[in-house]
Design brief:
single chain; mainly alpha
């Protein structure tokens, strides 16, 4: 009887559980495919972020050039106007014309009060409103 038990125990010890092995291999394969899906998603996201960054960089470069051109033109026009006002101021002082001198100083003050950034801010606000709205009215 004891020999029978030993043989049964040996058979149980040598028994290979194919279902359990298959389940473990199946889990490993599924885990690998899941990892590949996640990895592919991260690669795609990195590519999108890189392309988006390049687009933002190009937009910033374009805005920088636009602002530089605008400020160069705006300030060169302002400089020319200021130079003309100072020439007129010199003439008025030479002629002792106080009324013209006062008018020129007021105009010069008004010119200096004008902020060249205001038109840009207005354009940016209008562009923001357009982007936020669902439709564009013509």
């Amino acid at each position: 009887m004891e020999e029978k038990k030993d043989k049964t125990e040996n058979k149980e010890k040598n028994y290979f559980d194919y279902n359990n092995a298959f389940n473990k291999i199946s889990d490993a394969v599924n885990s690998y495919y899941h990892y590949q899906e996640i990895r592919e998603g991260h690669i795609t996201e990195r590519i999108r972020i890189k392309e988006n960054g390049e687009t933002i960089r190009k937009n910033l470069d374009n805005q920088k050039e636009l602002f530089k051109d605008y400020f160069n033109k705006e300030y060169s026009l302002k400089k020319e106007a200021i130079d003309k006002y100072f020439i007129l101021l010199d003439k008025c002082m030479a002629e002792n014309n106080l009324e013209a001198l006062q008018g020129i100083l007021m105009n010069l003050g008004d010119l200096m009060k004008n902020n060249p950034i205001t038109p840009i801010l207005n354009i940016q606000q209008q562009a923001k409103k357009l982007l936020e709205s669902d439709s564009i009215d013509f």
